[in-house]
Structures are given as C-alpha cells and as structure tokens.
Design a protein that fits this description.
CATH superfamily of the largest domain: Alkaline Phosphatase, subunit A
Pfam family, one: Sulfatase
Protein name: Arylsulfatase
Shape: globular
Organism: Enterococcus hermanniensis
Pathway: Cell wall biogenesis; lipoteichoic acid biosynthesis
Subcellular location: Cell membrane
Helix content: 40-55%
Amino acid sequence: MQKIKRLPWSQILIVLGVATLIIVSNLFFQLTQNNFSFELAFKFAFSWHTEKFFLGCLVLLIFYGWLTSFLGSLKIGSIFYLLVIIGVGVANFMKMNYRMEPIYPSDLKMVTEFSMIKDIVGFPLFLLFLLLLIVGVFLLVFSLKKSLKLTKQQQWIRFALLVVTSGLLIYVGGFNQPNNLLRKAYNKTALWIPYSQKMNYYNTGFMGGFLYNLSVDAMDKPANYSEATIKKITEKYQVKKKETSEDQPNIVYVMSESFSDTSRLKGLDILGGDPLKEYRTVANKTYSGQMLSQNYGGGTANIEFEALTGFSMELFNSQMTTPYTMLVPEFKTFPSLVSTLKNRGYQTTAIHPYNTSMYKRKDVYQTFGFDQFLNEDTMKHTAKIENNPYISDASAYQEVMDQLEKNKQPQFLHLVTMQTHMPYENKYADVPYLVKGDDTSSVQSYLQDVAYSSEALKDFLTEIDQLPERTLVVFWGDHLPGIYSDATQEANEGHQLHETEFLFYDNQHQLSDEKTVTSPFYFAADLFQQTDIQPTGFQQLLLALQEELPAFEKGMYYQDGQWFKEARLNQAQEERYHEYQLIQYDITTGEQYSLKENFFD
C-alpha cells in the first residue's frame, strides 16, 4: 500500500489526461467526418483502422507538445489545443455537408476571410467563431506573458521540448516526400484513394487524409520529359501567324456562381415555371450545352483556373486541391488566356463583386497579368436584390458594360459573379417555385436566384448586341449548389452532379447552334477556333485533344457520346493525351521549356 502511495500520481494523472485528450480529439475528427455517427467513429478507431487511428493520435500529440511548450503552460496549452480541434472539426463537418469534401490543409489559410465565413455559416455561428478566436488570442497573449516568469530550469525544459516538437512537425510536414517514415507507417495499412478525397479521408481517417494533402509537387514527372521532347511538341502544334491583321473582338468571360439546371437532375420536378426560361431563349440559338465541373457544391477557383489557363485539374496530383492557393502564387508570371491576349494588345480586367483575398485572387490575378481588378470596394454598381447579401448579377453586368463602352482598345473582361452564392434561404419574399422530390427552402430560393441570374444574362446580351465592336461572351456555371438531399445525390451520382450550363455568344451572330458537352479548359481554344482568332500552339494541342476527349475530370470521361469512369484511349489518343500532360508538367512543375518556344503566344 505504501508503494502505491509513493507513486507520482500527479504525473501519472497528467499523462493519462493528455492521452485521453489526444484520443478524444481524434475521435471528434472522425465524428465530424462521419456525420457524427458514433458507431462508425468507434469502429474506425478500435476495430477497422486502429493502426491509422493511433498514427493520427501520434501526430496530434506532437502538435499538442509543440503548443504547450510554445505557450509555456500545460493548462493553457490544453485549452488552446481544444479550441483548435473544435474549430477545425466544426469546419470539416460543415464543409462535408455543404460540399461533400473534407477540410484540406490549404483551407486553413482562409481562417481570416471573415466576410466569407459569415456569409457561409450565418451570423450566429460566425459570432461563435469570433468568440473562439478572441479567446484564443487572449490565451496566447496571456500565456506568453506568464511564461516569462518560469524558472530557468523550466525554461530550458520548455525550450528543449519546443525544439524537438518543431523538428518533428517539420518532418511530419514532409509526409509526401520519398522515404518519410510516417508515410511508410501509414502505407502498411492505408489504401489511398487519390481520385476521391472524400473516400480517402474515410479510409485513412481524418488525420491520414489531412496529412496526405500536405505540400506536394503539382504533378509527377511524366515519361520522356526533356527539353527536346517539349520542343518537338511545340513544333508539331505551332501555327504560322496570319499575314493580315487578325480580328480583335472584345472577349467577355462570365463564370456564374452555381448556375445550373435543376430540371436535369433525376427524381426532381419543378413546379411554378422554368427558372432558366430566359437563359434557354439565348442558349437554344447559339453554341451551348453542358460543362463538366470538377466538384459538386464548390471548387469555384479550380474551375476558374481551368478556364483561364487551359490546364486540367485531372492531371494534377490529388493533393493539389487548390492551385490558386497552392501553386500559382509561387510564380511571378503564369501563362494564361490573360497573358496571351495582353500580348496582343488587349486591356485585361477582372471583376469580382466580393473581396480581393478570397482564394488569393488579388495575387493570382496579378500573376496572370490582369491590368486591373474591380471588386466590391472599387465597383460603381453594387445594388442587391431584396435580402440577398451579395451584389446582383445585373449590377456586375453593368460594370462590364461600363468597361466596354469607355475603352477604345480591345477588351478581355473576366467576371466572377456572386448573386447565386450560398446560403440561399430568406433572400426573397416571394418564391414561386416548388420542387417535387427535394422541396426544401434552399432549393426553392436557389431556383429564384438562378431565375434572376437568367434574366440578367439575357438583358446583358441584349445590351451587347448594341455595341459597334464585335463582342464575344463565354458564360458558364462553375458547379451545382451543395443543397440537394442525400437521396437526390445518390440518384444522380456521377457526372449528373457535375454538369452545369454553358454558352458562347457573338453579338454578330456568327456562331453555330451546336449542342455539346465540354470541359472549361477547352473554352479559349474552342472560342478562337469558332471565331477565326489566331490560335496559340497550346490551343492547337487542346483542340486536337478535344476531338478525342471532349470532357474529362477524375473518374468522369466523356467519349463518343458516353460516360466512362476511366479513359479508353487507343495508341494515337494516348500519345495526344501524353503530349498535353507533358506541357502541363513543363509549366507547373518542370523547367518551362515551352515558354521559350512561344507556345502560349
């Protein structure tokens, strides 16, 4: 009995308390990943994937050790650690519900996007988020100030622990590097699913999926990559410049937030009219159809990246989840439609009726070469519709018209709208639409949103018709809204949840009325071909690829009028696909040999 009493119980209780905290926090992450199903979370942790669960606990323990040593207090460090876990876990739960995808490391950079967070989660949750943030800052300042009073011995122990845990965290950060021991430990039992991040997190746990998405090269080096190979490709697709002065029409890109056709979804029947009536009156008379979006419920910046650069998200490593935040800022310049047109004498303007920091757009647009970026603070037209918190499409289009009317030189205008962004409830007093099969207030309000958007687009194109200069418009929806029930999502699993509407418009009405399925990275090449604008060599390569693969993303390939989960390429088609892969690698990860060959000019 005396021996038991002599045991260092206070230290033992601390160790047990820390171990419990780490295990519970990892379980909390699993709960947010599994829609708070305790059965699934416990089976994952203690039955199906125990090894991976405790590897995740090890990483959390290292992070916990770093926090407590940095703050100089076990007690305050534990509280701060809990705040971080709760914040990340709740964010993961909400993102899974809204967008069917988990939180990625790159998402943590958005923590200071206060206006975006408020708009997405609503005011009550936003206040809670601010409260947690304020408490966290207070604890940080209070603890660091208090830590100055630690004894010399305590400071040395704190410093040693901080150095060790910092080194371990840096090593953990290299999870995707060759021979990383933590990655090797995961690989013994982990089944990585790069084509589906949702399943990847399910199969390896929240921590495993999170680690998998840490920093990594944009692409793996393709076979036969060399300067000679790139030169051969550029020579193959490079075209002679026209001897006569080429046509320089105005070009307007419009990426419409969440614009899609709900009536295309199986199991749904819209009552109260057609929200896309005005859109169809235009689309039926011009080149239009469906565009394949990478994600359901989100991923706006990725679709924008594809449309402006001509590069496909499908070719990237699966961990390259958001090029706007993870890739483009690393470059001083990056070849895109913007730089191509700017080199041809165009004035280039980006318009986004929201803040400039979302997805690092201010930095990205500067890298692409936009001459100016108009946002909610610099736009002249900022009217909204009823209780909608976002600037209306009609206002955004008026901003475009101002630019077209006041400038003499050819214009490239890129508009990213916000009117139809979530949340959708309580925006409008009168919503005439009902939906059999998924009749929620979100779906009803969304239909009213796209109806207003459809009307604004038609009015805008009518104004475009009055311009004396030839003006071309490319309009598309970036993704479906993440508002449909599980039953609706299951009934439309696959490409149906990824197809939005698109159209090309010419105010001289010289386009065909062909209907097709495409991907956004083909837009510029397709537009240049149809309007007889001088193409770049890269666009010639894209057109050649489009003939074989009209649309594709991970797990979705459109060939010969059918959808497949994997591409079915013959030898000639495989060669063309590989050429495209080599060029994308060359620009994003390689030595950029193709720039020396003026392949994008």
